[in-house]
Amino acid sequence: MQLVVARIGRAHGIKGEVTVEVRTDEPELRLGPGAVLATEPAAIGPLTIETGRVHSGRLLLRFEGVRDRTGAEALRNTLLIADVDPEEMPEDPEEYYDHQLIDLDVVTVDGTEVGRITEISHLPSQDLFIVERPDGSEVMVPFVEEIVTEIDLTEQRAVIDPPPGLIDDRAEIASARDAEAAGEAETAGGPESEPGSGSARGAGSAGDAEGGAR
Fold first, then answer.
1. Which strands sit side by side in the sheet containing 127-132, from one edge to the other?
2. Residue 175 or residue 14, greater confidence
3. What share of the chain is helix, strand, coil (3-state, %, to 5)?
4. Residue 60's pLDDT is what?
5. What's the CA gap between 214 and 209, in Å, rounded?
6. What pLDDT, in 10s, does the model give residues 94-130?
7. Stronger pLDDT, 191 or 96, i.e. the higher one
8. 208 phi and psi angles, rounded to 5 deg
9. Helix crossing, 197-212 with 170-187: angle to 10°?
């Protein structure tokens, strides 16, 4: 099985080094000296890593045969692809390869069907499950312990405990109800509500969900 493990960025210096956007939790294994990687576009590869080092928090690689800045710039935006045994597991039991998570059914802790994982989005702060719902819409679920409570590869499912507003519109409904109630009270001449108090609770619920996604 082939997995994208990095994307080549800009050239660094004048001796053929490039920055890379790492897309694997095991860069020392996948992107070490001597590794031979396929590429997308395929015509650019295969590329063999000659050296690697970390500079200012970024991984820098040099490939065999690339000796100057011009050659390095020609590789920009190329995807690096490693061959991985589909039965291989990460060393950390709490980690998973993307191909193990794609197509898992997603359900809540009470058994409610949410959808199916179609993509894993790797962000600097965390990973996100892109989940396709039965109606064709998509929802993003942060892959954090507080929300994703269980990954069961045997049963092919991911169990989540989502905060209000993450996978449904409960927060928006509550906000609309509060706003409507406040409007009716004011129209009826009842006690004046604090400005914006109805929407503040709904916005707070939505904010909680957003906070969990950081």
1. 138-142, 127-132, 113-122, 105-108, 157-160, 148-152
2. 14
3. 25, 35, 40
4. 95
5. 9
6. 778 787 888 999 999 999 999 999 988 877 678 889 9
7. 96
8. -60, -45
9. 170
CA dihedral 186→190→195→197, nearest 10 degrees, is -110
The region of weakest confidence among 123-127, 150-154, 160-164 is 123-127
Residue 92 has phi, psi (to 5 degrees) of -80, 120
Which residue has 């050296």 as its token pair? 51
Q: If DSSP codes are grouped into helix, strand and coil, which group holds residue 29? A: helix
| Phi and psi based region of residue 125 (left: phi greater than 0; alpha: psi -120 to 50; beta: remaining) | alpha
> Which DSSP letter does residue 198 get?
H
Please confirm whether the linkage preceding 46 is cis (ω < 30° from 0). yes
Any idea how long the chain is? 214
pLDDT at 93: 67
Please give the structure tokens belonging to residue 146: 């507080």
**Could you tell me how far CA 39 lies from the centroid of its own chain?**
22
CA angle 202–105–120, rounded 5-degree value? 75
